[in-house]
Design goal:
The protein is an alpha+beta fold. It has nine helices and seven strands, in the order E-E-H-E-H-H-E-E-E-E-H-H-H-H-H-H. A hairpin with a 2-residue loop joins strand 1 and strand 2. The longest helix has 64 residues.
């Protein structure tokens, strides 16, 4: 096999300008030799082990890093190897459909060599955002491949912050419904629990990002020069802000669910008090008539039609009482 069988994207940048794009894999090495000042972006979508083995042989990628790129659900991290740096990050996306919030997460493994940024995506995602960011910051190309890595991290962190903001907006509606007088309906309560699960998934993706960006700025890695350092610090600051926002949202939804539980308890106590009062009222005549054995004749006594009327009355009143209690969410 001379080239990967999976879908690939390729772009070659020199002085911030794309000088070649969407070229086949067999042109990668010749183009890098022809343009010694250029940097390459190579994207592999859902590659097979053989595809990664081919690329690993070409770019001297470490077997442990290649193994991490083939395994799903690796934690966000940055590892240093002799010939490259390996990162694992998650691009996230929040969508609202039919008043329900959906959470999408794309795992991206990144190999950073002296002149090449190789991305391995394990699920569909929009790579045009990376290209747009690189073209918008073309003046930073003097930083070499560190410029490409900055653009990728900036897009990922911005997406994570945007997801946190969308969850914050979605939580406003949940908050209004949860704090309704008398407690929220079960569907709203379940939506609040769903929001907490989404926040937990988002937190797993964003919590390691400030440390990861900070590691990328280490001088011994040689990825970030003085020109790029302020931009990386800006990404680190945004990542920290995102983590703070997610933690705030977690505290907020936990407080809301606790307040709703307390409101349910108050409503239950009120209902129990009412039922106990009615039970006490009914218990008095029941106790007296039971004690004296007062089985008095009534209209239809010892008649078949009286039995029918009595039975229908019992069943009808029981059914009406059931629907009344059901409507009040007491059953």
């Amino acid at each position: 096999m001379t080239e990967p069988t999976c879908p690939i994207e390729t772009r070659l940048y020199e002085n911030g300008r794309p000088i070649a794009k969407d070229f086949p894999y067999d042109q990668v090495a010749p183009l890098l030799d022809e343009h010694p000042d250029a940097v390459l972006w190579l994207d592999l979508f859902h590659p097979t082990p053989d595809d990664l083995t081919l690329v690993a042989r070409e770019f001297q990628l470490h077997p442990l890093a290649v193994e991490d790129a083939t395994v799903d659900h690796e934690r966000p991290k940055l590892d240093r190897y002799p010939h490259h740096v390996f990162l694992n990050v998650y691009a996230v996306d929040i969508a609202t459909e039919d008043s329900r919030t959906k959470f999408g997460k794309t795992e991206i493994s990144v190999f950073v060599t002296p002149r090449t940024l190789i991305t391995v995506r394990k699920s569909p995602s929009d790579t045009s955002k990376f290209v747009t960011r690189w073209e918008a910051d073309a003046e930073l190309d003097g930083g070499g491949v560190g410029w490409l890595l900055y653009g990728l991290l900036d897009v990922v962190v911005d997406g994570q912050y945007g997801a946190a903001q969308q969850l914050d907006a979605a939580m406003d509606l949940v908050e209004d419904n949860l704090l309704e007088e008398g407690g929220a309906p079960r569907a709203v309560r379940l939506r609040g629990i769903e929001q907490r699960k989404l926040l937990a998934a988002l937190r797993r993706a964003v919590a390691p990002m400030p440390e990861l960006v900070g590691q990328a700025m280490r001088s011994d890695l040689g990825l970030v020069d003085a020109k790029l350092r302020p931009y990386y610090r800006d990404v680190e600051d945004h990542a920290t802000h995102t983590v703070d926002e997610v933690e705030h949202l977690r505290d907020r939804i936990d407080a809301l669910l606790q307040a709703d539980t307390a409101e349910q308890g108050n409503a239950l106590n009120d209902t129990t008090r009412k039922l106990a009062a009615w039970a006490a009222i009914i218990a008095v005549p029941t106790a007296i008539t039971g004690y004296f054995g007062q089985n008095l004749p009534y209209p239809g006594f010892e008649k078949f039609w009286g039995f029918v009327v009595s039975t229908v009355s019992i069943v009808s009143i029981s059914i009406l009482l059931y629907f009344y209690l059901k409507r009040r969410d007491w059953l």
